[in-house]
Specification:
Number of helices of chain A: 8
Order of helices and strands of chain B: EEHHHHHHHHHEEHHHHHHH
CATH class of chain B: Mainly Alpha
Largest interface: A-B, 59 and 48 residues
Distance between the termini of chain A: 49 Å
Number of domains of chain A: 1
CATH topology of chain A: Alpha-Beta Plaits
Number of strands of chain A: 11
Strand order of the largest sheet of chain A: 8-1-10-9
Oligomer: heterodimer
Structural class of chain B: mainly alpha
Largest sheet of chain B: 2 strands, antiparallel
Largest sheet of chain A: 4 strands, mixed
Strand order of the largest sheet of chain B: 1-2
Shape of chain A: globular
CATH class of chain A: Alpha Beta
CATH architecture of chain B: Up-down Bundle
CATH architecture of chain A: 2-Layer Sandwich
Helix content of chain A: 10-25%
Strand content of chain A: 15-25%
CATH superfamily of chain B: Formate dehydrogenase/DMSO reductase domain
Chain lengths: 253, 427
């Protein structure tokens, strides 16, 4: 029997997110992200998942939202996969996950230039962990060497573990909730959930296709799968430059 | 002429006779050494900066996760465009039989070799894992413009190296080695094939370099509509390189003349190349104007943006358009087009302006593409290249100067033109 096709992705409720950053930390730890030296700053850090704070003003009202941003796992003309010269970016048609083949990466960073979400990081330094941190490296996730690009792969190590368990039980399909990425597991407010967009039986399927759902930069036509939720109208237009014109903008983080 | 046979049964090969011994036209050895010393020091500093990045990592540069391309890629694109004089002049001389161009053919080949070789060398420092460069040949992504660039650039570099062989074999000492002159002569016979091959490869890699940006769907400043299967920038980069290549040749020849205080290239050669460059620049500017209008009125609005938004980020304001089209576009194009009515100095300045225009085009394509965040709420960051980036590229330029100087001193670049030697220097 052939395995069913999936489109696993993240469902992020922006009305619940309070910007604590636990998802970002959990992501970095789960995926053995190198700890850059202090001089790296945000510009040269390894951040597969970052949280942007966006403040918006209309009339006298000021509102804000925290937006966790990671690889959006684009399904159509995937910008990074299209440009990589040596096929080091892979869109898995069975899971819908875009992953980076780090052992093949040339480090040309063309994929980073192509990504409209700035969701990719380059290893500018040789990865190093002090002794205490090195003891906590996840055994399922290979560390990356200097000079390669990395990104969110939807916690592939966790997916593989869950899939191996299912295979041991004679199953080829994962049950809903059997595989949870680190960001979703760590979120104290339950703002990040995993969803299979192609599975109508998924408990989060309704939310992912509901009125509150939207995708960042959908207009580019790359079919990003990461789905954001918000009841606020301006938040659903957060990727529109007109939403931040000179009269209404306060600041962005 | 001299006839040489490699084996008894081999057909005789005609080798051009060595130029007659004439009094040296060059400066003293001491003066030449003094000229080379600062360039050698700059080359050493560049090599140190490159080694630092190769051994310790690219954190020694000011590039970051947003400015993933910086000074090096901008200059790579620029010198590759400027080096296009090699394939343009080869095509003109060997296929279209423009006799005037032959006076700068050797200079064109060596300049091209240095431009392309320098660009590839810096590219190897710029990538994080240079030892994996061969992976592109093993696991090529046929949809990637960068894969096409890699293939064509590698092949063309080989073609340029082969084209350089007959020039190198003209060296006085090499000629005295048995067989060397024959090798040079035999390679020279295949020049028509090499010229066509070089032009074909150059067409695709110059175009792919433009396509690198044009295909970036997620970058509104760079993305362009497709013509056939390529974005319009593919064709604009090819045309701009073909246009500026001859002008850069004229510029390099003029720099030689100014430094050596001698006239080295016949006026007819300069005029013909300058006129060609001016004409092609005009065609390029016209097509670029059409492309820009379509882009601003169709492509950008279709992606949900206002054109003004693309030019709101300093230092890249709308002045870029004025500079590219008028000051560094139309002005040099018209001056070069009317080269026959200009002094050598004016042609030199026109070539400088034209080259600066193409450099600005490559700068904007590289940095303005990256400076504008696709998500409107994101910060814009500034980028200023640090000393390692500057010195590394300066080292490549120093290497080019040293090689060109040595080649000129060995009389490999320019032929003898009695009419020039008897006339007074005109500057």
């Amino acid at each position: 029997m052939e395995a069913r096709r999936h489109r696993y992705t993240l469902l992020i409720d922006l009305d619940r997110c309070d910007g604590c950053g636990a998802c970002s930390v959990a992501c970095a730890i789960e995926n053995n992200c190198a700890v850059p030296p202090a001089e790296a700053g945000p510009r040269k850090s390894i951040l597969p998942l970052r949280v942007d704070r966006v403040v918006h003003q209309q009339g006298g009202e000021v509102d804000e939202v925290f937006v966790p941003i990671m690889c959006q796992h684009c399904q159509h003309h995937t910008p990074c996969a299209m440009v990589c010269p040596q096929t080091a970016v892979d869109l898995d048609p069975e899971t819908g996950v875009v992953s980076q083949v780090v052992d093949r990466c040339l480090g040309c960073r063309y994929c980073m230039a192509a990504c409209p979400y700035h969701a990719r990081s380059f290893n500018w330094w040789r990865p190093e962990w002090d002794t205490s941190l090195a003891r906590h490296l996840a055994p399922d996730v290979p560390v990356r060497q200097r000079g390669v690009v990395e990104k969110c792969n939807l916690c592939h190590g966790r997916w593989q573990r869950a899939y191996d368990r299912a295979a041991e039980e004679g199953r080829r399909e994962l049950e809903p909730g059997e595989f949870v990425p680190a960001c979703g597991e760590s979120c104290p407010r339950g703002a990040i959930r995993l969803v299979d967009l192609d599975d109508p039986g998924d408990p989060n399927h309704g939310d992912a296709h509901g009125d509150r759902a939207f995708h960042l930069l959908d207009r580019l036509g790359t079919e990003p799968t990461v789905t954001y939720l918000s009841a606020r109208d301006w938040v659903r237009r957060i990727d529109d430059p007109a939403c931040f014109d000179r009269d209404r903008e306060v600041s962005h983080a | 002429m001299l006839e040489v046979a490699l084996r008894a049964d081999a057909p005789a090969v005609t080798v051009p006779a060595a130029p007659p011994e004439t009094p040296s036209r060059h400066c003293s050895r001491r003066a030449f050494t003094l000229w080379l010393i600062p360039w050698a020091l700059l080359l050493a500093a560049g090599a140190f900066a490159c080694l630092q990045c190769l051994v310790d990592g690219l954190h020694h540069t000011n590039m970051d996760n947003r400015y993933v391309f910086g000074l090096w890629i901008f200059l790579d694109l620029t010198v590759i465009a400027l080096g296009a004089g090699a394939f343009t002049s080869g095509l003109l001389a060997y296929v279209f039989h423009w006799k005037e161009v032959r006076a700068v053919l050797h200079l064109a080949v060596l300049t091209g070799l240095l431009c392309y070789g320098g660009a590839v060398a810096i590219l190897m420092v710029d990538v994080g894992q240079p030892l994996r460069a061969w992976f592109t040949f093993w696991h090529p992504n046929v949809h990637s413009m960068l894969a096409e660039v890699t293939f064509c650039l590698t092949c063309y570099l080989i073609v340029l190296a082969v084209e350089f062989v007959p020039i190198l074999t003209r060296h006085r000492r090499l000629r005295s080695t048995p067989g060397v002159a024959v090798v040079g002569s035999r390679v020279h016979r295949g020049m028509v094939v090499l010229a066509v091959l070089g032009a074909t490869l150059s067409f695709f890699h110059q175009g792919s370099l433009g396509g690198l940006y044009g295909v970036l769907q997620g970058r509104p400043f760079a993305f362009r509509e497709e013509l056939w299967i390529f974005p319009t920038t593919f064709f604009l980069f090819v045309l701009s390189a073909m246009a500026i290549g001859p002008a850069f040749l004229v510029l390099i020849a003029r720099v030689f003349e100014i430094v050596t205080r001698r006239l080295l290239v016949p006026r007819a050669t300069i005029d013909r190349l300058a006129r060609l460059s001016g004409t092609l620049l005009l065609v390029y500017l016209a097509l670029k104007a059409v492309d820009t209008l379509v882009w601003l009125n169709t492509t950008v609005p279709d992606s949900g943006l206002q054109p003004a938004w693309l030019y709101r980020q300093p230092p890249f304001g709308s002045w870029v358009l004025v500079a590219e089209f008028l000051v560094l576009g139309l002005v040099p194009a018209l001056l070069l087009r009317r080269a026959a009515h200009q002094s050598r100095a004016m042609i030199t300045w026109a070539a400088v302006l034209g080259c600066a225009g193409i450099a600005l085009n490559r700068l904007v394509a590289t940095l303005q593409t990256l400076i504008l965040p696709s998500l409107p709420f994101e910060d814009t960051w500034a980028y200023v290249p640090n000393w390692q980036e500057n010195v590394a590229f300066a080292g490549v330029i120093a290497l080019a100067v040293i090689v060109l100087s040595l080649a000129h001193r060995a009389d490999l670049l320019f032929g003898r033109h009695p009419e020039l030697e008897s006339s007074a220097s005109e500057r």
